[in-house]
Design goal:
mainly alpha; about 80% helix; about 140 residues; 2 strands
Length: about 140
């Protein structure tokens, strides 16, 4: 499986969980804290992208191994070649299914986090416009 990845932020390494926790602590009431939340979630996005890439690599590696084992078992069998080859790769098919699920999970996490970031960017834009209008009204 994929190991825990950390990222360097402000001279300290944070895990995904820690970055999410820090982002959750950021208020949506002020542009500076909302911008910080976007920064933290952007760092999360980088980690999620790496994890998604690692998951694809692992899936492809297991797929290639399954194909190799199948071919070797097929060649070695004297009769019922397809059935014997399929029996030889059952464990690899299960590993491949798990790896594909991880691949989809990490890809979905990237897409979901991207949507959150885009939503927060829009909120920040609205908040900045509101702060700008309030500053003009107070003059």
């Amino acid at each position: 499986m994929i190991s825990e990845v950390t990222v360097l932020t402000l001279q300290k390494q944070y895990t995904l969980g820690e970055l999410y926790s820090l982002a959750d602590q950021c208020s949506h009431d002020y542009p500076a804290t909302l911008a910080r939340k976007i920064e933290l979630l952007t760092e999360v996005q980088v980690i999620l992208g790496r994890k998604a890439a690692e998951a694809v690599r692992e899936y492809k590696r297991i797929y290639a191994e399954r194909k190799r084992v199948y071919a070797e078992a097929y060649i070695a069998a004297e009769n019922l070649r397809e059935q014997r080859a399929e029996l030889a790769v059952i464990k690899l098919r299960n590993q491949e299914a798990d790896a594909e699920a991880d691949k989809v999970r990490w890809s979905n996490a990237v897409a979901s986090n991207d949507q959150v970031i885009n939503s927060l960017k829009y909120s920040l834009k609205v908040l900045l416009a509101e702060f700008g209008n309030n500053a003009s009204a107070n003059r």
